[in-house]
Amino acid sequence: MFLRLASLFPILALLPISEARPASYAVWAADSGIARGQGNGLANGLPTVSYEHGEFQWGLRLLYELTGNKTYFNYIQAGVDNIVFPNGTIHGDYNFTAFSQDPVRTGPTFIYLYQETGQAKYKTAADTFRSQLNGQPRTAQGQFWHKLMYFNQGWLDGIYMGEVFYTAYTNAFDAHNTTAWADITTQFKLMFDNTIQLPGASNNTGLMYHGYDFSHTAVWASPDRGHSPEVWDRALGWYAMALVDVLEMAPPNSGALKSTLLRILNVLAPRIRDAADPASGVWWLVITQPGRALNYFESSGAAMYIYALLKGVRLRYIEDRDGSIVKAMKKAYNYAVENWVVDNGDGTMSWKNTVQVGSLSTTGDFDYYVSQVVDLNDLKGLAAFLLASLEFEKLDS
Ligand SMILES: *[C@@H]1O[C@H](CO)[C@@H](O)[C@H](O)[C@H]1NC(C)=O
Ligand SMILES: *[C@@H]1O[C@H](CO)[C@@H](O)[C@H](O)[C@H]1NC(C)=O
Ligand SMILES: *[C@@H]1O[C@H](CO)[C@@H](O)[C@H](O)[C@H]1NC(C)=O
Ligand SMILES: *[C@@H]1O[C@H](CO)[C@@H](O)[C@H](O)[C@H]1NC(C)=O
Ligand SMILES: *[C@@H]1O[C@H](CO)[C@@H](O)[C@H](O)[C@H]1NC(C)=O
Fold it and tell me: Which residues form the signal peptide (predicted)?
C-alpha cells in the first residue's frame, strides 16, 4: 500500500500543499535532500565527516528499511565511501586528536554498512571512532568533554553525537562489555543531572540547559552548578533523539541503561509537551524566553521533539495515558508542514527556519542564540523533518 501511494506522489506534489499533501513527506524530504546532493559526505566537493550527514543517513536507512527502495541504501553507501578510504582510514576533515564528538555521529552508518555488506573497511573506520572514545577527555565525574578545546564541558549535543555510536558499536561488537554499558548510562545521567532546570530556576520549564562546565569557569557557567543560561531547542532535541534511539538499540543485558533512560525520558516528555507555544504548538528557539523580541519558532528542534516523542510513545517507552503527548506532537507536525515546507514546483520541497548553529563557544546567552543565521534546507533540520515524518506517517490517523 505504501509503495503504491508513494508512486502517486510525483503527481500530487505538483498541487499546492494546501490542496493536497504528498503521500509521504518522509519520501519527499529524503528525495529532495538527495536531489540537492545533501548528506553525501562532501562539502563544496571535499570530503567532510559531518554529524548532520550521519543524521540524514539515519533517516535514509529507516526509509530504506520501510520501503525496500535500494536508492536510499546506495546513497548512504556512496556518501560513506566519500569519507572512508578502501583501507578503512577516515579522511576528509576528521581529526582524531581534536577529540570532537561531532564526527563520531557518522559512525552508526559505518556499522550498518559493515553489517549489510561485510566489507572490512567499514569496521576499521568504526574502530577508529571507538578508540577515539577510549581516549576522550572526561570531567572528574566521567562526562566526556564535548571536544578537547572545550575543557570540562558537557553539551547536550554531544550525547547524540557520541552515545548513539557508542551504543551501536557496543551492541554490534562488544555486547558483554558491562563497563561500556555502564559508561553510556553515566554519559546520559551526568548530562541530565548537571543541566536539568531545578525548582526555583528563573523561567523554569523543567528542561535541560544547553550544557555545563564542570569547572564552572566558562563565561556562561552559573556559579552554583556551572550550567549555561538558556534552554536551546535543538540541544534538547539532540538529547531527546538520543534517548529513544539508544533505548531502541540497548539489549536486555545493558545494565541500568534502559531503566535510566526511561526515567529521564518520562520526566522530559510531558515537560517538552508543556513548553510548546499554546497557539502554534511549536517551540521557541530559546525555550526559556518565550515571546521575547527576536525569539522565534525554530524548525529543527520541533522536528526532533516530534520524532523523539512519537517514537517514544510508539515503542511504549513513554506513558501517554491520556494521549496528550501524541496530540501535541500532531499539532506541532501540522504547524511544521503548513509553515516550514515549501513546494518548489520542480518535484522537490524545501525546509525553512532552521538555525544554522548554536554553540557554547561564546556567551551562550539569549542575544547569541537569536543572532545566528536561519537557513533554508539546513540538513540538521531537513533530516529531523524526515525522521519526524517517518514517525508521523506510522500513526493510525
Ligand atoms: C526509489 O526511490 C527513488 C527516489 O524516490 C524513485 O525515483 C524510484 O522510482 C523508487 N524505486 C522504486 C522501485 O520504487
Ligand atoms: C589508507 O589509504 C590512504 C589513501 O590511499 C592513504 O593515504 C593512507 O595512508 C592509508 N592508511 C593506512 C593506515 O595505510
Ligand atoms: C587536530 O587537533 C589538534 C588538537 O586540537 C590540533 O592541535 C591540530 O592542529 C589539529 N590538526 C589539524 C590538521 O587540524
Ligand atoms: C569495554 O569498554 C570500556 C569502556 O569504554 C573500554 O575501556 C574497554 O576497552 C572495553 N573492553 C573491550 C574488551 O573492548
Ligand atoms: C523570562 O522570560 C521572559 C519572557 O520571555 C523574558 O523577558 C525574561 O528575560 C526571562 N528572564 C530570564 C531571567 O531569563
Answer: 1-20
Q: Cell 538555525 identifies what position?
A: 355
Confidence of residue 397 (pLDDT cuts 50, 70, 90): low
Radius of gyration of the chain (CA): 20
pTM above 0.90, yes or no: yes
The tens digit of pLDDT for each residue in 190-206 reads 999 999 999 999 999 99
Q: What is the DSSP string of 231-290?
A: -BHHHHHHHHHHHHHHHHH--TTSTTHHHHHHHHHHHHHHHHHHHS-TTTSS-BSBTTST
* Nearest listed ligand to the Cα of residue 75: 1
Question: H/E element holding 75?
Answer: helix 70-81
Torsion sign across C-alpha atoms 22, 341, 356, 186 = negative
Run of H or E residues at 211: strand 211-213
Q: Alpha-carbon distance 163 to 167, whole Å?
A: 6
Q: Is the CB of 296 under 6 A from ligand 2?
A: no
Tell which residue, 318, 336, 316, has the closest CA to residue 265.
Answer: 318
The whole-angstrom separation of Cα 209 and Cα 192 is 9
| Domain 23-392 of CATH type 3.90.420.10 | no
Ligand 2 centroid to 91 CA: how many Å? Answer: 9
Q: For residue 122, how far is its CA from the centre of ligand 2 (angstroms)? A: 14
pLDDT at 15 over 70: no
| Ligand 2 close to Cβ of residue 91 (< 6 A) | no
Contacts of 259 (CB under 8 A, 6+ apart): none
CA of 34 to the centre of ligand 1 (A): 12
> Whose CA is closest to atom 5 on ligand 3?
98
Element housing 112 (H / E): helix 107-117
